[in-house]
Design a protein that fits this description.
Two copies of one chain form a homodimer.
Chain A lengths: L13 H15 L6 H8 L3 H8 L2 H14 L4 H8 L3 H16 L9 H4 L7 H27 L9 H20 L4 H13 L30
Helix pairs in contact in A: 1-2, 1-4, 5-6, 6-9, 6-10, 8-9, 9-10
Chain A binds a DNA duplex (30 and 30 nucleotides) through helix 3.
DNA sequence: CCAATTCTATAGCGGGCGCTACGCAAAGTG
DNA sequence: CACTTTGCGTAGCGCCCGCTATAGAATTGG
């Protein structure tokens, strides 16, 4: 039935236009990117935009969804492929340093920065919920790691997850403020030094200092 | 000469109005706070605002300056009063957790969040420069601490300063995303665990896991 | 008192915002 | 071909933006 459309075919590629809208929103944020900016970036006129994507807010939601599945997918890959919580979050932070400073697209993270100072509550809330969902997944992974014995029993999974989230968000803003890839990678390495040492109990009452595994990463280097 | 004005006296308190403008900009950011929002918050009409403060941008600059000397002064106090680099930056992060979640004013840090996604380049740049100046002062303090022997000789002052800045900026956004004071204090404590341990060399050739001093803070707790 | 000075209030300027009505262009269907 | 369906382009809607012209109100100096 939908093998072929009835009327005049669309004169632009919808996915390409979506990608160009992504770049615009990524660079300037939701509110600051006007529909006029979007039509210019996408190479189409306003009625075409509205016909293909609904209104500005709906377009942004589609942009965010596509972003999460492409540029923002490194976190999910790290979680899927790394066996330990430390390995997953360390890789997430290190890859974020690369993505946030990749010269082929705007700096930082769209989900972190695009709805800051946004006067449309639904948009602000949608991205906030995504961030808090990510935080919850960090926590779940850390808790699972602790229960599996990778991390000391007293580890506060919620606090450690929030710490990683704060570093990630800080790295995004630092990237937008001009930090280099190397500088952000160093930040990621330092952040991983805050993780509980294998075999070192986290509570002050000092117990069960058994060996555990070795450090996964060398971590502290000069320069 | 200026003991008394010649004409009709101002009918509002300039400092009070400035404070109310600060709250508005702090909550919604530079761009999102309209002049109409400002006049409502300050309780004056537009011509009075322009006569007393110049234009919107000049008012914002005055707001930022006042903010830096009041709500944002905790960093300078920590630097002035704490004898060591670790003490200064640890206190800065801990006090930031309190300020960022103080219920008597908007959450987070105005200098960090108010010019994100701002289409006025001068405003965005002014706050970015302030942040980068703060980062440079972190680095100078850490470098001085390393030269004084507080920290291992190989310590990368720039990277450690940037790490602290990233945590601070991340804490600001987390506060705006709803994190509690207690949660942010835990983030600050964890961040301080990444600092080089006294007596432990920073270079990575994997040795010397000797005891070192006890941790400065217990850090990870349950709940 | 009157004149000069300074602040306040109303009302509105030009312009950009998100969005859309409308008529034409380009395709499929008989 | 005529007819329907759908996308495109122009042009412009109502609204809010930052900002200000103008006139009246409140004060000091003479």
């Amino acid at each position: 039935m939908t093998t072929r459309q009835r009327g005049r075919p669309r004169s632009f590629d919808r996915l390409t236009a979506l990608e160009q809208a992504t770049m615009a929103f990524w660079e300037h944020g939701y509110e600051t990117t006007s529909v006029s900016d979007l039509t210019r970036a996408m190479g189409i006129s306003a009625p075409s935009l509205y016909a293909a994507f609904g209104d500005k807010r709906t377009l942004f939601e589609e942009v965010v969804e596509a972003y999460a599945g492409s540029y923002g997918a490194y976190g999910g890959r790290a979680f899927a492929e790394e066996p330990t919580a430390r390995g997953a979050l360390g890789r997430l932070l290190r890859e974020a340093a690369d993505v946030f400073t990749d010269p082929s697209h705007p700096r930082g993270c769209l989900m972190i920065s695009a709805a800051v100072n946004c006067s449309t509550p639904e948009v602000e809330e949608a991205l906030r919920e995504r961030r808090n969902r990510n935080l919850a997944s960090f926590e779940a992974r850390i808790r699972a790691g602790a229960e599996a014995g990778e991390l000391p029993a007293g580890t506060d999974a919620g606090a450690l997850a929030r710490f990683c989230g704060a570093v990630l968000q800080g790295m995004s803003q630092q990237a937008r403020d001009g930090a280099t890839r190397t500088e952000l990678e160093a930040v990621a390495e330092i952040a991983m030094l805050a993780w509980p040492q294998a075999g070192v109990p986290v509570a002050a009452t000092g117990k069960a200092p058994e060996a555990g595994k070795a450090r996964e990463t060398p971590a502290g280097r000069g320069a």
